[in-house]
Fold this protein.
Amino acid sequence: MRKNLFFLLLLSIIPFAQLVAQSSTPKPEYQDGPYIFMEDSKLVAKWLEKNALQTKTLEFEEGTPLSLSPFQEFTLSAEDLKHLPEKPKKVHFETEAKVAALSDVHGQYDVTIKLLQANKIIDEENNWIWGDGHLVIVGDVFDRGDQVTEILWLLHKLERQAPKQGGQVHLLLGNHEIMVLTGDLRYLHKKYRYTMAVFGVPLDSILSASSYLGAWLRSKPLAISINDMAFVHGGFSELLLSHLPNLEAMNTVGWEAIDADPKIQKENPLLDFVLHDQMGPMWYRGYFDDEVTTKKNANAILRTLKKDHLIVGHTSHLAITPLFDNRIIGVDSSIKFGKSGEILIREGDDFFRGTFSGEKIKL
Ligand code: ZN
């Protein structure tokens, strides 16, 4: 009897003890930012440090780019602000140099860094060392992981470093950029809930068109081409190409759609189609379903685009995945899981998988 009583007592104590253990677990101390705003013609950086809001007015010293401790990837020059990011007029690029592509990094900064370092695109200090090469990020930097802002500032830095060596960085929008910019915050890592709480507004307001990162993101295309390759996050369905048969038209409609008010979106169903439809360029997955896409369909799509290869992200694979003799190549190598990843490399006519250890495997 006494033994039973002891057991009952023990059982009633366990949930209480668990509750105490949970409540004494320290809250994570988050750091996020910086987010840059123009306020009363002053440049203001705001960021999250140990879950509290920090604010600093930034001032340029002649010729010295701004940096901000502890954000090692953040730099901004007076030049950046003289010409606030504008939508690019050019979407087709030609180069004799190497081209690399990766996608769906989803806030996994450490994996991204390691992959770029292993493949000699950046050095140990995360600076561009890939000469005149072109690097394409095929969308989905946002959501899931907790180091999205760090990756954005890294790409912003590399985008400025690469042209000094004749190279170029192309960041394309994916469906998760579109989701965040249009206020669909379902997939945010919980860290960004702290950011939003201290800023007192949702993340889409922090990244509005009047903020620096917001303007910069809105200057990024949905699709580009380099030589004989086209790049887009999800893919081009035949339905999409019947409405928008070229990349210029697709980008123009996408840009208009991001900040279009709901009334205009309703009047023009193409706006919603480009950003949100399963058959649109941000969400399409048809190539990897062999009941939907055959080599014949793939060839027809490429003929419309006047290209030989289409590089896409969005559909996750364990490694870079070619289809139809490299006509279509999926580069989402599941970096989102935070363990490893691959990068596609094009040299001359050959495609390679650049692995996490820096090996090059011919496709
Ligand atoms: Zn995606």
